[in-house]
């Protein structure tokens, strides 16, 4: 059924304390992300009861409203528009300055101190840097996979250079976008963060020698760009607080770029390169020596990460592996969690034949689940029932162990981009033995996750008696 984004936005804003209580709004693939000035004004029970809301993840002033793909973009736009109108009205009355509801980065962070742990804060802010990059990563990854298929089939070879350029350009310059987003997230000037991060990928760094060796363009990758832009933000704030206002426009950007650029060249690129290399080495070692156990743990624990909204913090690791090896070997393992949940939901559908409302929810959410969007099934089916969430994790663990076992045998499965999972990941699959072997192993993992998730839920995840209806 088609929803009315404006009505949903109005309901959400009312239940979070009104437009004046929202200091920033953004979204990822499935979640509306709000920062609240006063978290106590949030009506969690009322917000969960909104028909379009699939789930809610709140942590201090930060509120994630799970709406699902497609819907979240429309509702976010409506929320941002409502915030802009409210801000304009306040400004006309002599209150606050107009705002578009998206750019008040400083105020959106101030309320978080003391209300969430340092680790949670760090993970959330790293996610805020990388989540906006996901659409480009998906698009470029699919084009890269299409280009590979065309080359292998010996078709459209004349078009291949153009497709390769389009697919590779973003990844070649991703450091710049990371720098821009990092500076914006941490309160600096975005273009200065991008300028310093650009040093990481500039071809001319090959002429710079550090510790007796020439630097390589891209050395340190997104981790180096993140560190460089964070340093630039700190330097910018320090300089701006000490130079006269008349000289700020000249001295602040110059000193920021100079100091941060030199530290990036002679320290951060080398250090971040070593960390990135260690990540790649550790991932390969883990899969080749303990792949089944690693897959079991990663596949089994990923659903709780998604439930808590912490899964986005893994994006820098995925991006680092893609830049190093051409694909990330972790995403196919983690994707098995969705397979376990699909199997668990199907078992619920079969067992609870008399629960028409729940079966309708499963029918509507299952297509998204098969395509790797797990929140509708998490919050609409498995988590409310309790035990099916655990048995879904068991299915994900089994699927992950299957994929990891083949990695131990020498067949690794990787994804050339991040974002999709489930069936949507098939066009992005590749590995050390080619796309065909990767697709076969991944499909086997999905099937294992479906079967184990279904069997575990059917046998242990639900009581034999029908579930009481929602009305009771």
Description:
The chain has helices at residues 5-15, 44-48, 71-92, 105-110, 118-130, 134-153, 160-172, 174-185, 190-201, 221-240, 245-308, 315-325, 330-351, 356-370, 375-385, 387-408, 435-461; strands spanning 22-27, 31-36, 55-59, 62-66, 209-210, 213-214, 414-415, 429-430. The two termini are 26 Å apart. It folds into three domains: 5-116, Gyrase A, domain 2 (2-Layer Sandwich); 132-277, no CATH class; 296-461, no CATH class. The strands form three sheets. Strands 1-2-4-3 form a four-stranded antiparallel sheet. The longest helix has 64 residues, at 245-308. 48% of the residues are buried. With 472 residues, the protein is an alpha+beta fold. The model is unreliable at 96-115 and 466-472 (pLDDT under 50). It is globular and about 75 Å long. A hairpin with a 2-residue loop joins strand 3 (55-59) and strand 4 (62-66). The chain is built from 17 helices and eight strands. Helix 13 (330-351) runs antiparallel to helix 14 (356-370) and helix 13 runs antiparallel to helix 16 (387-408).
Keywords:
alpha+beta; about 65% helix; about 475 residues; globular; four-stranded antiparallel sheet; Gyrase A, domain 2; 3 domains; two-stranded antiparallel sheet; 8 strands; disordered C terminus
Quick overview:
This protein has 472 residues and is α+β, with helices and mostly antiparallel strands. It is 65% helix and 6% strand.
Tally of separate domains: 3
First-residue to last-residue Cα separation? 26 Å
How many strands, which pairing sense, and closed or not: the largest β-sheet? 4 strands, antiparallel
Task: State the low-pLDDT regions, or none.
Answer: 96-115, 466-472
User: What is the C-alpha radius of gyration, as a whole number of Å?
Assistant: 24 Å
